[in-house]
Amino acid sequence: MSSDEAHDEQYDGEENEDEMQVDSNEAENDDNEEGQSNPKKRKMDFGADQSEAKRAKKKEQKEEKLKKKLMKPNAAMVAELLYHWENFRQRDVEKTKRIAIMDQVLQSCKGKIMDIIFKSDACRVIESVLKLGLLRQREVIWQEIKDDIIVMSKNHYGHHVVVKVLKYGSKEMRKHVLKQFNGKVVKLCKHRDASEVLEYLFAEVADKTEQLSLLEEFWSPEFGIIKSKTPRKLDDILAAEPERRPSVVKYLHETILALLNRKDTAKAAAFTHSIVHEPILKYLQLAAPKERSEMITFLSEHVARFLHTKPGSLAGVLCVGYGAAKDRKTITRSFKGYVDRICREENGHVVLLKLLDATDDTVLTGKSIYSEMKKNLLEIANDKNGRLSLLLLLCPGKRYFPVATLEQLKVFEVPDAEDPSKMVPMSKKDADKRRTELLESIWDETKEMVLHRAFSLITNVYGRDVLVEAIKHAEGEARNEMLAAVLELCDWNPEQISKSSKYSSGEKKKFHALDFLREEEPQKEDILVHSLGHRTVRRLITEVDGFDALLMAKIESKLLSLATKPYSSWVVFDLARSEQFRPRVLAALKGHAKELAADANNRASQFLAKFVQNPSDTSIFEKPSNDDAHKEATPKPDAKKVETPTKKSPAKSDAQPKKQPNSAKKK
After folding, report:
1. Distance of alpha carbon 357 from alpha carbon 359, whole angstroms
2. Which residue has better confidence, 625 or 189?
3. In sequence order, what are the residues at sequence separation of 6 or more whose Cβ sits closer than 8 angstroms to the Cβ of residue 82?
4. Which of 107, 113, 119 is nearest to 72 (CA)?
């Protein structure tokens, strides 16, 4: 057999196999048509049937739920109210149309407001009417709910309506709500929903007299029963009646423990309410040392929640100052995640300062407190209150800290357990040693901030304090690098590339604690002619040894042009005050007195002009007044162009008549 014949037979065999396979597929399809289903198709059909069954079941459940909802009382009315609510609550609705729709709402629910006000959806309609409605519409709602204020305040949905009444209601409505709370303040303060209404009433609505009236009920139960016409502070009450002190302390102890023993989920939120901060403070001030230390143990984990008010911050300082080492450890850990906010708080930053200054465990404080500050160190340094956390380590004292804050930072003392007549300090470690150890945990980041973000610190009224004190504290090579970073910005040329900033070229870097270096640096300027930057330079000239010599070496060739500019002239003036550089300044300005005196509004250049004309007269450098130091060159209107009106005597004949009121003009 030839190879061609063998190839033909092989092809015929393959063709026969293909035909047999096609026949088998057709037979399988025929079987499927006769009733034997394909497994794949059967699986798909089963899935489709199952999904249809689920849809049908959900539809039935939805219909049953709707039927049950319609079976509830006032269901049809609530549905109508929600329909109207969707129409009038939008911002783009015309005022007349909104008022008309709200009238329909009030007409539909007339006499039934108290029946629907405890429902999760219907109460929102009433809240919107109180917020957007007219006074007469609010009055309609008020007439139906005014006798059930306490009941509504205890309800999860109803208490929102009471808050809206306090926020948008009339003065009479607010007084009525306040009257309803009289005698029930302490009891309602322990309730989850009513405490929110009480807090809004105390913090946002009540005046000082009404606040004292509410606080009186924390001192003794009888103040809730018998209300005095003139409420008094606790200090005034105890000064007039000293025998009340034991009973007041006992009642405060019971009240605070009741707040601590709340079983609901809002126990922690109770301490955020400002109305309880004053009672906590008074208890810590009046209680005996043993009772006070026990209460501090209970309060230590909640300090972060009540330090945002002035009484709360003072109570927090007492918890830190009189607390044991274990209590301070608990307080430190409770600050986790909130350090950035606390150090910038108007009142809360004092508690953080006390914690840093009183805790002997500097390792824990450095890891827990300063490790969080590293991420936003630049923002903290440029903040009025935040910078104090850094200045506490760099320059503690009266220069940056108010007297009241320094009083709180003093070491607290308690009677010795063995000898009560002997007072023992609560902090044992030396203050200077503690600050040195804490500074080690934040010094590297502070140095990097000064090197790479010097312009942001120099041109900030608060950040410059951190920069100056950091330079004064630095030594050796670190000090030279910081001074070089500042000198680089003096007589700054926008075209030159910063040598001190490693990350100014936009190169990618790995994540590390200095997150503020990821942010774009602001556009740099010459700090000598900057309104805030030149003040920092003047401070460095007078406070940092050696900076004036470095600055003089850099700008000596440009002293004349700098002396004629508004802000930089004060820098030249400070250099001329130094006997070391006065001859060099005189040599650079000699013969240019007219140029210096040309700008009459530039006080510094005027002083320099007098100095050039009469170098022997150095009286202008001896004791510059505060006005000369701070009232620096600011543009003023030209005296020739501005006409100052002259006062005319009313006795003269050309005296102008008095202006008539608007009513007379209309007539």
Report:
1. 6
2. 189
3. 121, 122, 125
4. 119
DSSP structure class, residue 498: P
The residue-averaged pLDDT of 585-602 equals: 89
What is the phi/psi pair of residue 297, to 5°?
-60, -40
Output phi, psi for 574, to 5 deg. -65, -35
Percentage of residues in the chain having pLDDT higher than 70: 79
Q: Which two tokens stand for residue 557?
A: 């060739």
pLDDT over threshold 60, residue 1: no
Give Cβ neighbours of residue 518 (< 8 Å, ≥ 6 apart): none
Contact at 8 Å (CB) between 252 and 218? yes
Cα–Cα distances in Å, from 193 out to 153, 268, 473, 628?
6, 13, 53, 59
What are the tokens at 408? 């709180």
Angle at 631 between CA 626 and CA 637, to 5 degrees: 150
333 — alpha (psi -120 to 50), left (phi > 0) or beta? alpha
CB burial class (10 A; 0-12, 13-18, 19+) of residue 26? exposed
Rounded Cα–Cα distance for residues 648 and 431 (Å): 67
Mean pLDDT over 138-158 rounds to: 93
In whole angstroms, how large is the CA radius of gyration of the chain? 39
238 burial level (CB within 10 Å; 0-12, 13-18, 19+): middle
Q: Which 3-state string (H, E, C) describes 195-231?
A: HHHHHHHHHHHCCHHHHHHHHHHHCCCHHHHCCCCCC
Return the structure tokens found at 102: 């709200």
Quick one: average pLDDT of 111-130?
90
Residues 6+ positions from 589 with CB-CB distance below 8 Å: 559, 560, 563, 596, 608, 611, 612
The pTM of this model reads: 0.78
Q: Which two tokens stand for residue 12?
A: 């015929």
Q: Which of 281, 331, 286 is nearest to 311 (CA)?
A: 281
What is the distance between the alpha carbons of residues 353 and 389, in angstroms, rounded to a whole number? 6
Closest CA to 572 of 545, 611, 622: 611
- CA distance linking residue 143 with residue 136, whole number of Å: 11
135 three-state secondary structure: helix
User: For residue range 50-66, what is the model confidence (pLDDT) as tens digits?
Assistant: 678 878 878 777 777 76
In Å, how far from its chain's centre is CA 583? 51
pLDDT at 126 over 90: yes
